[in-house]
Amino acid sequence: MKNTFFLMMLGIGAVSANVQASSLYDVTPSVGLLESSPLKWSFTLSAGYDDNVNAVAKSNPVHESSSYVGFSLGSSYSNQDARTQLSYNALLGGDVYTRNMHGRTDQVIGNSSLSMQLTHAFDSTLRYTMHNSVAYTPDPNYADGISASRRQGNTFTFNTSHTVGKSLDPRWALNTNVSYSGILYSESEYQDDNREYVNIGESLSFKASERTSYLANASGQFVLRQEGYNSQNIYTTVGIQHALSPRSNVSMNVGTQIKIQQGAGTKVYPTLSGGYNRVVTDSMSISCYVSYNNESVGTYYDGRNYGSNSTWRLGVNCTQKLTHVLSLNYGASAMFSDYSDGEAGLGDHKETTYNFNVGLSWRLDRSWSVAVGYAYTNADLGGFSTPYTRNVYSINTTYTF
Predict the structure, then answer these.
(1) Residue 74 domain-assigned?
(2) Which of 14, 45, 56, 375 is most open to solvent, judged by the fewest CB atoms within 10 Å of its CB?
(3) Is residue 159 within 8 Å of residue 24, measured between CB atoms?
(4) Which key words are in the record (predicted)?
């Protein structure tokens, strides 16, 4: 792990991809085709108020509230017409708080990311796809599968994923995937949870009809932790993808996870993931996910290790067009972690995190828009810390050119 940064830069190079696009929960195919768009730029100014910047209980001495201001410069491009399709998104920005946060020597939180997706069709049966991303943002990012709950401060996340798809005939297809991702915490108190993921997998799909496909998958995952024990995981799953209509689809994958970790031996757990992806009408879109997995997140505590962290993650996001200039977006997510098989008297405990967000955007003209938002978090760390709540209010304006 000491050479993580250099290995990451060699592996990723100068390209990257949208963090949301590489989410663990993007388990269903997109509805409709991606569209080409010319090079676009955007500039955003924001302000807000956070009533619990340190994510602690009100009784904690370091409980602090703060107003903040922020900025970001964004750029995007998409070419979906050529044999080699390319798109990218870039964001450079940050937030400046009026009060210091616990454990930090400055009051600046990063908010920057760079992303790239490339697809090349060698012929009508063979296709290569690459997703790359790098981001420096505050954690938690609940949309991203490698994120933990409750974390605070800046985090550096990265992902590079490569897939080769081969159609064997009109019904059968093979996909081979290799990926490398990780999360690094800038605050020293959280760096014991720095971790990297190496994944390799093979899947076979069968198109039973124009609307339904069945899938079988075998994959391996290697989790490399800065502190505590590494783990190896072998997954075997079967699943289904079904188009409910031309504008909506659903998927579900179920199977087994064999987890091998020092001190905990070899254990077998169930695993599942599912999604109801981008149900789109003229005025509303919705996506939701559910996931169950035995993770290697937060398994190290002061020199001791947990062998098991069974975690449920659930979420839903909606966007609703109220008028031709007003849009409403809202969503909720939840995370339930059950830690067990602890070393040297490390007792079992459960952690829960709930999140809710809502926002309203108003398009002033073709270039200008204004948005207001509210986010709520409620977390219980199961005896390691006092439960806390957090409320964040924001307003921003964006100019696109």
Answers:
(1) yes
(2) 14
(3) no
(4) Signal
